[in-house]
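Subject: sequence -> structure tokens, single chain

Hey, anyone have a minute? Need the predicted structure for the following. Not urgent.
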Amino acid sequence: MGSGQTVAVFGAYGHTGRFVVAELRERGFLPLLTGRDADRLKALAYGTGSATRTASADDPASLDRALAGAAAVINCAGPFATTAAPVIEAALRAGIPYLDVAAEIEANLDTFAHFAGRARDAGAVVVPAMAFFGGFGDLLTTAAMGDWTAADEAHIAYGLSSWHPTAGTRTAGAVSRERRGGRRIVHTGGRLEYRDDAPPALQWAFPDPMGLRPVIGEFTMADVVTVPSHLSIPEVRTYMTAEAARDLAAPDTPSPAAVDGRGRSGQTFLVDVVVRSGGAERRAVARGQDIYAVTAPLVVEAVDRVLTGRTRVAGVASAGEVFDAADFLRALAPHITVELSGSPAEGRSTTP
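Reply:
Had a minute. Here:
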């Protein structure tokens, strides 16, 4: 549990930020609510006793004031192309760990490129993409690898029942598309390639009960940054169920609507990870509800492990490198169920 430690949440009043704040409270942390909008911060804090501090990514002094006294900071404010670097800089000045929930490929690449050396030299922990896209896929891939030190290819297939994007998701997607000139990204041959052609329409055989579903192949997510950052896998491909991709692309798809007391939407997900080496195959399958809501237990479990010294490296590192992946996934029950097969942990569920 959090033992009353203060964790700053930048962008606390956003859709994902609210889930993160609630999870921090549930885990015994004291969330420090930060962001640009003082009125929204006060509304979120009303009746909870949580402290609030206004801060803006373009005002370093305000970020320093916002992080004063915090044990760590979780950045939930996109677009991360704008916010990640300033908040990381502030965390380094404060001498505290930084975690974010960035799904933007380019923003995550920037974090690794610009801060790896400085964070390592400072002994600081910086964990980007500690969210459903990026961190979760990396944890699953790393756990599926087991005792393998390298593999030929990793395939991460996202079976979403639907995708009602938040305003933040739409903004971040627009920023990413603009930064890469509308091209799409593929990780092949051990490096990123930019392509102008349409992604392939394929079929993916998900585990039951989903079964065979149409997917968009090479629907590239932040996993192409996190997984290759520490695993020797030259081919990393991600796939998205076609219906979810259509939801995301449609301008009139509404934002997520709560269906339970925790504020989760009715969206369900199945993530199917297949890793191959030679003729051998290993697999990890995860199931849960609401990709935005489930980001909260992911990043809060991560901050708990960082603050209790359960990390493997310092510097900028993705989830699968900095944490014990299989143990981390077990800790996510009951939010997510995970099964591994084909590895030394074959037949063992990562839930109790």
